[in-house]
Predict the structure.
Amino acid sequence: MKKIYLAAFVAFAFVLGAHAAQRPGHAAIASAHKLATQAGFEVLAEGGNAFDAAIAVASTLSVVEPQSSGIGGGGFFLLHRASDGRDVMLDARETAPAAVKESQYLKSDGTPNRDTALYGPLAAGIPGEPAALAWLAAHYGKLPLAKSLAPAIRIAREGFQPGKTFLEAISSHREQIVRYPGTKALLLPGGEVPKAGWTFRNPDQAATLERIAAHGNDGFYKGKTAQLLLKAVKETGGDWTAADLANYKVVEREPLDFDYRGFKIVTASPPSSGGVALEEMFNVLSGYDLDKLDRPHQLHYIIEAMRRAFRDHNEYLGDPDFVKMPLDTLLSPQYAAGLRASILPDKATPSSMLPSAVAHDPGMHTTHFSIIDADGNMVATTQTVNTHFGSCLVPPGTGVFLNNEMDDFALVPGAPNAYGLLGNKANAPAPGKRMLSSMTPTFVFSPDRVGVIGSPGGSTIITQVFEGIMAFMHGASAAQIAATPRYHHQYLPDVVWAEPDAFDADTTKALQAMGYDIKPRGHWGFMNVATWNLKTNTLDAASDPRHASGLGEVK
């Protein structure tokens, strides 16, 4: 996975050494909810570092944004340790239970059962986030786990007033919520969708977090919480076992890192597909001098790089513990050169000319936060329960929203998941296997600046992060990166989705003349960015300005 030429490696080793020796002296946190950002700063004030703050932010998001992420789900935690410059990815992706089989997700006529894949116990993988929080505290943090979880526990017990997004998610999922008594009791007071001004309390999740605080991994994967989870899953038709829970392990993985025009990019490795797609796209674009091209032709080559990266995403990627992926080939300069040779200078390549698949509209869920602490430690975390409220199953007594990440497997090869992404046997479910993900937490290093970037958004995560990196490389501030208008192509369907302000009229017309089908759509994603200017030793943090709940702050 290391393909950096020796000169570049030496240069970046020098740069990273300089980063390690320099301290910003203050901290920056950007997250999707102001209470989560404040929780991170509260833990820093207690003497914690970025890794302790990440525990506080992640667990608080579990309380205040259960429609997007939580301890019933999982994620990827990309870490940079300032003391030695080490980069590592904590893989807290969910795993398939031992009893999983494809037939569970098929109707009697053999067609995919989308309801089973998305709602209820068969949709839920074994959660990974509790293990990641315990691992962070034990191996990277400075504070006891209980102290880092304290803000989330307090907010869960005392309550808060949810915003419009939370309430709309309840309304749109009422039909699924009423299926499960634990979820209905939590989200539908008096059986009705709550109104603005409602105080949401989750004392059961507070108690679950307290058991994790007291017993670490065993506080979730064994004991009372495990018993409550297993009881509810079994009673609603699922097949988790005590061994499924007890055997869950967080995995430390080497991130992908690569060089692009003087920038070092460190990003998520499989089972994230995002880092591979990013590197493949940048490898393709390294053969063009984009700055010398007009805007339509810049976009032409970028969209064609996206198209080819997503084709390979569908075809080859999966859990590295289960499948052998041709990464050396996919990420080689020779492969990128071959892909460039297939791109015409003034004409879109129809996806039908590249081998294979079908898809539909990508969803917009998940959450991301970025942290830089006073010592220069950094965390980029993308975490999720998949679609809104995950499986919509809350086991009574836990307050935990179980994920529906089983849908991220290729449950039925060749059939699209909730985000329109396809897969084959490389991403087929198997006992203990981790499903492929688009989550792409990323660091960007240059001699002058450092960026911590990520976003939610289903399959659009990859292209959002790509566009955020490009904006960073062109000197954009954290606020400008978070607000960058977005566009997206994912191979199939063969369309370019574009936010209202992504392209001007002349650019749209030029792209259409090349053969692109441009589809306008509303804003998507929820990018949260932290940057460090090494020349001025100043930090900046920003949350997507189109979401009122987010907060990027420097203290």
In short: The longest strand covers residues 74-81. Confidence is low (pLDDT under 50) at residues 1-15, 357-364, 419-423.
